[in-house]
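Let us work through a complete example step by step.
Step 1: write down the sequence.
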Amino acid sequence: MCEKKDLQFTCRECGSDQLAYQKYAKCMTPVSLLENSNIEYGQSIFDEAYYLCVDEGFICLNCESLVDHCGCLMETEKELIDYLTMDPQVREQQQQEHDECVDALSSEQEQKEIEQVNTSATMDIFEKMTINE
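Step 2: predict the structure and record it as tokens.
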């Protein structure tokens, strides 16, 4: 029989072990207008059938970083459990390889953007030279 082990979470950003689930649901709070220009707020009503399509999923309760692995957010319990039960060394190696790939792509994109700006600036200079001639 397979022994189940306790799940443990440690935030990669701040080291906290506190976990939360983030979901932006529609919330309405009844308001009463009182005498003397006062406003009283009632009990909030949450309607989870209507929610914003933003980063939804498990987060660190301390620093509010989204829990992700190699760019994939942990949105379901199964994803979180699979992530937490993964061999920590394998998980770290995969994350490091992913981060290096993202950094390389980012540097490549930045270089392309710099080249585009330089090309555009050179064309502007040639246009001004042509107009001034």
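Step 3: interpret the result. The chain has two domains: 8-85, 87-133.
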